[in-house]
Amino acid sequence: MGFAAINTGNNLLYLLLGMLLSLIIVSGVLSELSLRNLTVSRKLPPRAQVGRPHLVEIEVFNHKTRAPSYAIEIEDLRAGQPADKRCFFLKISPQSAQVAAYRRTPARRGRDRHIGFRLATRFPFGLFEKSRELSAEGELIIYPAVDPVVLANDPPGPLAGGNGQIGRGGGDEVLGIRPLREGDDPRDIYWRKSTHPNQLVLRERGRETRRDVSFVLDSTFVGPAPTEEWSNRFERRIREIASRAVAHLKRGDAVTITTTAGERARSSPALGADPLLRFLALVEPRRAPSTDTERLPRAS
To answer: How much is the average pLDDT of 217-244?
Structure first.
């Protein structure tokens, strides 16, 4: 159009229009070139919790051999949630990768499904934005929030539970020493007190003591769907149980959580709080079974 405007009377107007159209064409070509041959991956943390920020790393690799990519903006897409987190990459050189991270604070527990990325650029003039979407599945389990809880002191006397009574066993506490007998484990020989090879002394260990703590979670509702009040009470109960379970595990107690729907999870200080928090993160309300029996018509 610019060349054709030379032999016309309005050549300056046609020349200006041709320059504007050429800028649009150049912008589309360069932006398309910047978005080509890019692969994106994410690195999710091993665990996340409601109310606590965590980092998600985004890595983009430019597979082009010569042309770099400029002004790339990447949105991490999640199922059922708006794309509110973005990472910006000013320049990605050919055959190289760039890494950026964004911080996110979950507001609710459960499964957080990542479904892909949205790549966008306004290069080179910032007049238009070109974008494309890439699919990339990922899943992160959001644990319920845990509040600090101060537990009451243990009552005097033996602890209640599966192994609550003090006695002989295979724990770490040493109750005393005694002469070695036939059938004893030679690894418990107390060599410092054994004065003669024929007079070996054995360390007698105590049984580990712990308290078994149980929590019951009401996860069944009555009616076609749970009400908002019931759902809020259900979430508060999950948070309360999670907080108290973590406090008991830190004290050395074994914890069991049971729902009214029949689901069950158990953990001990050796296993940590992950099994219980994961169970509470994924537990869902269930409709209570109806007590009304259907009446079948009698055959005539």
So the answer is: 93
